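Re: duplicated header lines in exported structure tokens

Our pipeline writes sequence and tokens for each protein into one text file. With two proteins the header for the second block appears twice in some exports. Here is an export where it did not happen, for reference. First protein block:
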Amino acid sequence: MDYLNIVLGLLLIALGFFVIKYYQEKLSEQGGLTFKIRTTGIGLIIIGLALILEEFNLL
């Protein structure tokens, strides 16, 4: 088992939630990159989950 992939997956998940939460608090009034920023956060969460699931041979 490679612990680096698990740690990296957890960090990506945390970063994804941080991006979405930061967007909701600070940037939602300005408009512009609405869809792209939310999609980036969701993408980071999915990549993190994939890394973790692949490490445990569930994917």
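Second protein block, exported in the same file:
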Amino acid sequence: MIAGTLARLDEPADEPLDSTFGDGGFPALEVSTTQDSFDDRPVQAGTVAGHVREPTRDVFISEDQSGDKRIVTERDERRETIATDWVADVTGTGLVVAESVQGSSPFAFPLDLFAARTDRQPERLVVDVEALHMAWNDAGTLGNVWMRGADGGDGASIDYHQQASADEPATIGFGFSRPWNGTVMQGVVYESGYVAVYNEDRPTAFVRFLEEELLDYAAPEDDDGQQATLGEAADEPECDRCGRETDSVDDTGYCVVCRDKRDEDGEDDGEAYANLDTVTEADGGEADGE
């Protein structure tokens, strides 16, 4: 499986990425594989790690000299060191696909690392899901739609399996099993720019599929941000696995799509978290470059 949030450099980089490590080790960008694609372009994959600050809220009881007590809350931040996997085609399409992106700013981790390493501006992409759905359907390549998310103006809804009719275009996202390049690609795409292909682990095939079938329907996110559907995503919980904000997250920490995928693959929780490690720093010092 390869999955993540789509971003694209404003201009292709001149050179492929190299593994680089900052002072004390962080921030770090590791290139684990570089493969030539079908047109001799280097497609790369690896892991990035760095420091981020997470908001916290401390709650305690305060007592004054007269013995009166009250509840006091204080907002603060803690520093965490996190890691996430990535796939990139920086010298060709300029694509950078990070499994997890922390925040919505243009230089949210790990996009800041790619900006620094390439001297280019990564732009997060949103997908015109309705146009993509209709184009695949018109071309006879839509295949089986097993999940359909749409907002008809009176509220968002998500249908699955038999209820996910391919005759009605999706507008928020859809899950697909469709023919491509002599095989069947199984995955999901959302308006927010999150894409997953469950049955592909080759970075070259993943990037080629995106380039040939999806990028024509993706564009840089506008200043206001386009993805505020599904009941205003900013107020909804975030899936621990894919990072998508959705009200389908339950007590497991997974959204319904990731739960279905976990159950299908027979993964336990340790396997599911293997590609998204979060380690809290013990020293509490300042982040590199801050």
